[in-house]
From TrEMBL, chains A, B, C, D:
Name of the featured protein: N-acetyl-gamma-glutamyl-phosphate reductase
Keyword NADP (UniProt): yes
HAMAP family in the cross-refs: ArgC_type1 (MF_00150)
Class of this enzyme: oxidoreductase
CDD domains: AGPR_1_actinobacAGPR_like, AGPR_1_C
Residue positions of the active site: 146
Role this protein plays: Catalyzes the NADPH-dependent reduction of N-acetyl-5-glutamyl phosphate to yield N-acetyl-L-glutamate 5-semialdehyde.
Pathway annotation from the record: Amino-acid biosynthesis; L-arginine biosynthesis; N(2)-acetyl-L-ornithine from L-glutamate: step 3/4
Oxidoreductase found in the keyword field: yes
Length: 342, 342, 342, 342
């Protein structure tokens, strides 16, 4: 099979990571690459690590440029994907790496994004219950947010097994690439090196309703989420520390069994042996997820911690994984579960 | 006043930070410095940033060496302070930077440290209600742990004001100096740079009972603590993200008022203007504490976040602050509230 | 003495570091602080580590605002200092932290900056031969560049002693704060963490003629400089690796003797014991300079390496040191020689 | 083809990187993995990023364990490889990632290592003139040192083209993984983060004679090397800044032409477009080499700068590349030229 792929938004971090993976994907042929303010520039300047593409020139993001490909990935600012997708045919697989089509609830969209809801597409987190079926043969896919990927995978087994109360408390640390290439003072190297800081505290981060959606679906009842993201002095990685009160009668063995069952057949999720905890370095550049869970008897809480690479499993790797499923390819084609460490 | 000071354990990070502060303390004269395996070595090799002390030679940690000083700081592995303190006279101010005398409950000590409880000394966190009175004129002081310092300051106002339910959920990120100079593989630069990882998950970290003790005292009832520490890729700093469910009827204004009242007269604690959040870089090398608090209405939780330098306010700076109080000196003598940033 | 000080350009890294030092200077009273695009903003947002100044509001950079102070520091983009200085009286001490008045040779200025040469002021690197005399009582001072500070101190003793051939090869690594707060993609945390990269290679860096000027003065003949700066994944610090061929007959003992003599009475320059090498962490936040020198017999080269904090000794600390000399204060007033490490 | 491979020294950084690459090599089957003090431990604990090998147990490093493989990689402390290699048959391809067989001159070995010289094997830097021929069909290969890889590739074209004087001055910055997993205080995260420091200054670093050997071979005359290595706050990467005086009559165009010719057909060496400079982040985790060269007319020096990943091209990737050549496989099998960035 030769899958011809276009990437809209190839100059950013998500686009760059996607191209890194597509270059190693045996069934993919890279076609048009587009940018906005960077159109006309060589990729070698914008993404100097992608040596084989150094001489490619970014084109403008238009339907004409993106037409004629089997798959089009959209790595655009939120609110822009719907218009582009409409102009591409229904037979083209469109994979949106932005937020536009993740939420099912239009009111949530309105509250967190303040614009009209574009719709809901099949959700590209294959490890969630029932998710794979919706992705097989799909022509439209919404790639999850990086935080919701890490958090949903860490907590859904506790909810599907009915072990956790429906109030989750989550603190996550992200590498700076999660904030993209935006030129903002607080993202300067001088500011982030040697510093940890929170942002979007108090229920206002836009990934919150997506977590609520995923965990509520797993629990079969509304799950409240208290989510605090923090910026860590590293380029890549998310470490999500997630906890919820245990339902009465829950034992440590119940918790372990639920997680072992949930991930037994998952190619990318690695439930660590008891006593070993995740580290973001271990999944650097890979599509792997490391998870560990514990039951704190004193506090009566289930504590699940996951580590992902925000750009790989959290964005571009998750997108490729979903593409593989949609196209009927082996799910791990072109994806690695081996981190680049140390 | 000339205060003659000895430091037992001068080769480690806590000892080094203490000496850095004492060198800038106008009333202090530095006397004997001791080490264990490093006795006989020059400080210039062990602590190359302390230029004025470069030619001092570490002596062995014995009562003879430590005798004859007004103040003796102990930066020793836990379990060793009691024997040393006993040999020093009752008129010497002994300040223990280790864990031995922090806990009031012998059963807690036994459970978390597995040895005999040495006792309880006045607790060196002056900002806690009633703490200063116990420190004035004291001859024995237990310096708090770095995490309990960050966490107790972030949460006690919510408890003293009766706004929070007695179950706290805490995730904290620490710089690697919090783990000391121990030669362990996971503390190598190659391992920690670019990586976040948790440790001591599930209620087993030794600082947990100390947080329970402080928050329970503030609340006037037992407070449960779920504490997850994480190791961040930075040398210094603790960012503590602390939350608890709000008691019925609590408003955002109540929360703000409680925190403003708690810290109105504190020289080192800076409650940030609304909308601005702490960053560990802002308190780097200083005795300052940055705190911000929010009320998340959706999740009905109070979220308080603090940033400290684990070596300064979290260890050596807190020790000097308590020494100043004990000796009747102005509390901020020799201490800075200005961070070294960026 | 009460010295009233104004700072033009208080929102950048150099201005922030200067304020950090001035806050600890016992003879200084901080007056007007000005900014350009940030005028009207509170310093607490722009420099959150300067807690005591959090509520100060930046004023626009005008002669009116800066008038009425004993000392005015200019931390402005190059080319702007002359106009401001002209409007301040001759009795005001004006200290320019930019490049405008460092070079003696107008042709050099034109070649590297492409504008008209503003003039030459007394050069604020007191450790250079004869420099202190020019600074005593001065009313205009040009603060050296950060790289020329590190490089000139590392190499001048070899030239004043006549031990080195007049061709120096220099590679220096700087922390990102040396590039200021400019919003450029290559300065984003995601780009700099985990990466080393050179820039300004091949004799084009603007600090090159300043090094040539200083080393030629020391040698008494023109010294050629090959200078390669590199950007390192750290916020602060310069490590300068400097070498030159040894003149015939030079011995290791000659080299050591020349350096010991040059720095014997310098309060801030610490020639390390033989075998110990500088580290930027050891001078973090301090005005200290660590230097070590070796003679490589195989290659017949003298290798001198210095470590400074680019913001302190390399900019703001050097400025305060020169101010102290100009005002007749003890040279180390308000300055520390103790690094904040680890 | 199925190539059965054993790795002696699988618990260190070089061994781990080798396994990461071998897991992605389509012709390789991983056989015995051995360790020294770690024998008996699971790889999942020692190398948590190598998920597919998590349950493998390290065996002791003995000839019996290593026997029966087509290829044996040795990642052992220097001085230990000869004894192991002797016990393996002549038909086994033995690839030594240590220093033992790199040097041709026994006196150099004795001077820098102080033990008996084990011999000289074909040198695994295929890009050097004539190197590939010696590797084809070889049964013994010495993998170059990481620094000599970066430096030799950066400078040999200037010497083969006769453009440079035979005295090279080199400063290189390395990530901490270059120092291995040894538990030494100066390698602790607290020490290296935020710090640059030199080591092995003055011609004493053991990689110096290897650089001399390579550059002298390229020049056809003895080349002197002044080499200063520095430790940078990053896990991976080497940035080598190399320069030499230009021979009379050399022009910038000559230099550019020599480098374009030298690397025109090299799959892994990427001579950057003029004006763009290497960054170690761009080659992170890849076998690529980024090189740029300039002629500084003022200083009359050729300045060549290279960036590699010290663990990949600098060690394990170079080893796999040489294995591919020796076995007659396409040279880039299992190797990537795409960096993991940002």
């Amino acid at each position: 099979m030769v899958v011809r792929v276009a990437v809209a938004g190839a100059s950013g971090y998500a686009g760059g990571e996607l191209l890194r993976l597509l270059l190693g994907h045996p069934e993919v042929e890279i076609g048009a690459l587009t940018g906005h303010s960077n159109a006309g520039q060589k990729l070698g300047v914008l993404q100097p690590h992608l040596l084989p593409l150094a001489d490619l020139v970014l084109e403008p993001t238009t339907a004409e440029v993106l037409a004629g490909h089997d798959v089009v990935f959209l790595a655009l600012p939120h609110g822009q994907s719907a218009a582009v997708a409409q102009q591409l045919g229904d037979d083209v697989l469109v994979i949106d790496m932005g937020a536009d089509f993740r939420l099912q609830n239009a009111a949530d969209w309105d509250r967190f994004y303040g614009s009209e809801h574009a719709g809901t597409w099949p959700y590209g987190l294959p490890e969630l219950p029932g998710a794979r079926a919706a992705l097989e043969g799909a022509k439209r896919i919404a790639v999850p947010g990086c935080y919701p990927t890490a958090v949903s995978l860490a907590l859904f087994p506790a909810y599907t097994a009915g072990l956790a109360e429906p109030e989750a408390v989550i603190t996550a640390a992200t590498g700076t690439s999660g904030a993209g290439k935006a030129l903002k003072p607080h993202l300067l190297g001088s500011e982030v090196m040697g510093s940890m800081s929170p942002y979007g505290v108090g229920g206002v981060h836009r990934h919150t309703p997506e977590m609520v959606q995923n965990l509520s679906a797993a629990a079969g009842e509304p799950v409240g989420v208290s989510f605090t993201p923090t910026l860590a002095p590293m380029s890549r990685g998310i470490l999500a520390t997630c906890s919820a009160k245990a339902r009465p009668g829950t034992t440590a063995a119940d918790v372990r069994a639920a997680y072992e069952k949930a991930f037994a057949d998952e190619p990318f999720v690695h439930l660590l042996p008891e006593g070993q905890w995740p580290a973001t370095a271990s999944v650097y550049g890979s599509n792997a997820v490391q998870i560990q869970v514990a039951y704190d008897e004193s506090a009566n809480r289930i504590i699940a911690i996951s580590a992902i690479d925000n750009l790989t499993k959290g964005t571009a790797g998750g997108a490729v994984q979903s593409m593989n499923i949609a196209l009927g390819l082996p799910e791990d084609t072109g994806l690695s579960m081996i981190g680049v460490a140390p």
